[in-house]
Structures are given as structure tokens and as C-alpha cells.
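Whiteboard transcription, Tuesday session. T.W. wrote the C-alpha cells on the left side:
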């Protein structure tokens, strides 16, 4: 498949080629390389319509697939085809999944536990505060936050995730080399280090207005569900929510004032039964079966002693999900010791398993975690450099 990658990228430049037409090419030719070099008569013998064949002929006359791949390398961008094991599993479930996904940064297995957070570009102080509160708790629970890098709710969601040392994915309505709005370039650079910028638009694609409704299907497609925080009834956030419903994803909405135009969107979703009303992040976690029952029972005092094995595990863990194999390698303990220690930490509500043998620290573990973390050679992770005053 690697030998064929330049041709996937090249065909992605043909605007009329989506999931179905890519499928026609794959079923008709042994490889996409063969399809790219096929004669006009062979192309017209496929199930492709004439206009699409004409566009392929025009595109390949002006484009070298190897140059396209080199261009990606120069921008440090990866391209995942739908056959790539790195391609998001949830995205494969939607009917119009993109044949190629461009990624700047890295998608990790734990990103399968992601939630789309969307809302108005003209967020109110209430909307920003709600976003910060929800995102903080969702990140602590091990969720990756997906959003669209727009001003307002999107930017607040990304920023809050970075502040809380979580992973975040920005889904763009342009090529991943073009950051829009420009004021979010610094934040985008930090997202690359703590998640990824993704798009199905080839690099160099400008942020055209018509691109954004289409990109929303990817935002909801990679996620377990979608949380709507503010937006009028014509907001793009509602487009994302309804695409999430079509994709059989959960949709949540935070209610707002009946007098606020910016709360009309989520209020209508709730009123129409399209979204579940949520007042806390715990409401979402329960719906996603990610909530821990009786979290407040048997909480240890922050002065309670922690034995050496527990301290070793706490030093490895953070509020982002870490797989048990990584804990085993980093702790220097045997796997049985790691397993039994994690069990004890879970019983004491210091650690939570968030699925797939991934573990995170609970909020209650924070004081104990900080007291032992000084022994970690890695030290404290630096706070994100993104300036909150960029969020408008």
C-alpha cells in the first residue's frame, strides 16, 4: 500500500472522487497506480461518470503523484488511506468516510475515546465557562476532545484541553498546512504536539465557506458523541449535531437562557428530543458508560501514606490515558505487580480505567500524585503557551 500512496494522494485532488467513486476505481483496477496510468478508454469502461473521468484526465495532466508525496513530507504531514491501520476505526463506520485523511501530529489508540465539543464562534462568558468546566472533567476522565479550531467555543475547548494536559484533535475545513483563523496558529502548533490537526482536504486547500459543513462529518465521525454548547438555530454546531445523529452517535446539549439567541440552538435540540440535556460532565460520562460508580466512597486523605509500588505507578500516570503495557515498562515492576497495584489504586479511587486497559489519574489523586511526582526525572509538564486572550 505504501507504493500506492502517492496515487491515493493524487486522486484525492479530484474533487468529484468520494467514497463511492474511489471504490469503483479500486474494484476495477489492480492498484490505484494502474488506475492513474490507465488509458482514457479504460477509465471510461469503469462505473465512473463522464464528468469524473474528464476531471481525472485533467488532474493527472497537471500533477505528479511523487511530487504530491514529497510536498506532504516537506510539511510533515501524514496521509492515512482507509486501508491504513492508523485510520480512525470510528470514521470507517460512517457512510461517506474520506478515502484519505491528512494528519499533522499523531492519532493514538486512546483517541478512539473522543468527544466532539462544538458551539458558536461568538461565545458568551457563560458559554466559555461551561466549556472549560466540562472539558476539564472530560479530559480527566480520559477523553480526547475534538473540535474545529474556530474562534469561540471551539478554541475554548482546545485551550482547556491543553491546559489540563489532555489530547485534542482539530478538524479543519482547509488543508492541515493552512490554519484558520490565523490567530490560532500558536494553538495549532501546540495541538500538533498534544494531538493532531486532521482534514480530508489536500494540503494547500484554502478555508472556503462550503468546506466547513462537510468537515463536520469527520468531527462527529471520529467521536463517541457530540456536545453542543451555544449556537443559534442556523449554527454549524447544529449541523455537526445532526450529522452525529445520522452516524448513530450520542448528542448532548447544555441548556441556556430562553432569552439568549446563542442558546437557541442547543435548547431546540433538547426540545426536539435530538439531544440529551446535560448539566454536568458526569451526565455525559454516564451516558457513555465511562462513569465510575461511588467515586466519592472511601476517598483517601491526601496525607495517607502510599507504598513504594503505588508511588511508582502514580509517577507514571497522568490525566491522559496510559496503557498498562506502558505503565509496566516505565515503572520497572513486574506485570503481576502492576496489575495488583492498579487494582488497589482503583479501589482507593486514585486511578480509573477508561477502557482498553488504559488508565488515568482521578482528581482525588492529584495531591498525592504531585507529592510523588518530584521524583520523576521527567519533571512537571510545562503549561501550554497558548494565550487565552486569543480566544474570542
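and on the right, the sequence the group agreed on:
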Amino acid at each position: 500500500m505504501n507504493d500506492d500512496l502517492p496515487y491515493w494522494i493524487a486522486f484525492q485532488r479530484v474533487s468529484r472522487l468520494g467514497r463511492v467513486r474511489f471504490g469503483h476505481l479500486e474494484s476495477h483496477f489492480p492498484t490505484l497506480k494502474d488506475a492513474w496510468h490507465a488509458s482514457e478508454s479504460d477509465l471510461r469502461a469503469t462505473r465512473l461518470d463522464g464528468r469524473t473521468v474528464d476531471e481525472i484526465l485533467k488532474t493527472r495532466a497537471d500533477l505528479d503523484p511523487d511530487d504530491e508525496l514529497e510536498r506532504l513530507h516537506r510539511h510533515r504531514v501524514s496521509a492515512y488511506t482507509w486501508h491504513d491501520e492508523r485510520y480512525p476505526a470510528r470514521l470507517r463506520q460512517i457512510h461517506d468516510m474520506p478515502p484519505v485523511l491528512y494528519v499533522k501530529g499523531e492519532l493514538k489508540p486512546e483517541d478512539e475515546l473522543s468527544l466532539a465539543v462544538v458551539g458558536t464562534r461568538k461565545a458568551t462568558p457563560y458559554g466559555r465557562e461551561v466549556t472549560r468546566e466540562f472539558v476539564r472533567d472530560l479530559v480527566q476522565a480520559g477523553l480526547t476532545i475534538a473540535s474545529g479550531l474556530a474562534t469561540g467555543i471551539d478554541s475554548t475547548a482546545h485551550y482547556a484541553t491543553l491546559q489540563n494536559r489532555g489530547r485534542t484533535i482539530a478538524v479543519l475545513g482547509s488543508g492541515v498546512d493552512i490554519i484558520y483563523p490565523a490567530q490560532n496558529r500558536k494553538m495549532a502548533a501546540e495541538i500538533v504536539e498534544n494531538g493532531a490537526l486532521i482534514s480530508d482536504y489536500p494540503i494547500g486547500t484554502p478555508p472556503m465557506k462550503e468546506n466547513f459543513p462537510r468537515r463536520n462529518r469527520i468531527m462527529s465521525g471520529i467521536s463517541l458523541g457530540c456536545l453542543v454548547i451555544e449556537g443559534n438555530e442556523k449554527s454549524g454546531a447544529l449541523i455537526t449535531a445532526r450529522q452525529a445523529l445520522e452516524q448513530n452517535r450520542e448528542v448532548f446539549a447544555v441548556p441556556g437562557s430562553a432569552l439568549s439567541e446563542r442558546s437557541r440552538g442547543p435548547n431546540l435540540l433538547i426540545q426536539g428530543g435530538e439531544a440529551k440535556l446535560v448539566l454536568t460532565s458526569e451526565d455525559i460520562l454516564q451516558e457513555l458508560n465511562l462513569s465510575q460508580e461511588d467515586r466519592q466512597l472511601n476517598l483517601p486523605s491526601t496525607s495517607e501514606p502510599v507504598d513504594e509500588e503505588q508511588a511508582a505507578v502514580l509517577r507514571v500516570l497522568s490525566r491522559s490515558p496510559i496503557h498498562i503495557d506502558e505503565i509496566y515498562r516505565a515503572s520497572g515492576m513486574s506485570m503481576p505487580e502492576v496489575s495488583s497495584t492498579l487494582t488497589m489504586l482503583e479501589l482507593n479511587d486514585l486511578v480509573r480505567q477508561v477502557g482498553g486497559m488504559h488508565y488515568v489519574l482521578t482528581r482525588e489523586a492529584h495531591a498525592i500524585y504531585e507529592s510523588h511526582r518530584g521524583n520523576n526525572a521527567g519533571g512537571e509538564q510545562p503549561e501550554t503557551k497558548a494565550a487565552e486572550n486569543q480566544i474570542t
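Someone added at the bottom: The domain at 105-291 is CATH 3.40.50.450 (Rossmann fold).
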